[in-house]
Amino acid sequence: MDLAALLDRIADDVAPEVGRGAVADYIPALARVAPGRFGMAVAEVDGAVHGAGDWEHPFSVQSMSKVFTLALTLSRGDDVWARVGREPSGDPFNSLVQLEHEDGIPRNPFINAGALVVTDELARHGDAVDALLAFLRQESGRAGIAVDPEVAASEAGHADRNRALAYFMASYGNMRHPVPSVLDQYVRQCSIAMSCADVARSALFLARHGVRNDGSRLLELSAAKRINAVMLTCGTYDAAGEFAYRVGLPGKSGVGGGVLAIVPGRCAVCVWSPGLDARGNSVAGVAALDRFTTLTGWSIF
Q1: What is the 3-state secondary structure (H, E, C) of the chain?
Q2: Residue 95 pLDDT > 90, yes or no?
């Protein structure tokens, strides 16, 4: 299959969707991103990478980073599962509602509350962002991957909801480190800038059942399987059922407009287009992944 030609076709097919939706205006630095951008990259398990559009243009990965922090945490043991669940939330990604009903245990690691717990758990081994950047730079092959300071400052200045989530969980004893430290690491983690090609390359360990680009094993097969499973059921927030219906792959979105998807045994795919739907997922990104699985027949179903 000529994946480069296929991606060009998909870019043409979804062109009417590009620019639809709204950029994430509650983070001022993201509100300034041009909504008409579109990029898509596919990284195959043999290392070949193909792209279309703005596939090499860096953007704010936001919640896509949660996949990588969860993987790094699980590579050190599965203690985190005592602190966070694995069920879909059915509520917005920054909701406080379920925490009180469930004694400060977040429903899953991909809503904001759950991701704060994962970052807190990873911070037991040192600065979570330092560990994450080292991993992403090695897997992507791009040493320049870094936190975007403008986005980080903008996000830190508008983090009252995340601060509330963290302190609420701390009141139940579900924070190991001081909330300001965890929140700082979480904000910097979400503010990392990467391209579609960078993200797809970095996520290949999930397509390879836990094996990194250098051939070493990050995760046991069962742990990689479980991350993919939670991505499928929880990775696009309260639109996970719709994403599974349309795309049929494990996926993780971010409000920067990126969407990561995994085809186990074949490839990792990343799409970027900043216009979001009401649930915080890229309108054109989901449409592109829908076309990708339709045209290739690659799905877990």
Answers
A1: CCHHHHHHHHHHHCHHHCCCCECCCCCHHHHCCCCCCCEEEEEECCCCEEEEECCCCCEECHHHHHHHHHHHHHCCCCHHHHCCCCCCCCCCCCCCHHHHHCCCCCCCCCCHHHHHHHHHHHHHHCCHHHHHHHHHHHHHCCCCCEECHHHHHHHHCCCHHHHHHHHHHHHCCCCCCCHHHHHHHHHHHHCEEECHHHHHHHCHHHHCCCECCCCCECCCHHHHHHHHHHHHHHCCHHHHHHHHHHCCCCEEECCCCEEEEEECCCEEEEEECCCECCCCCEHHHHHHHHHHHHHHCCCCC
A2: no
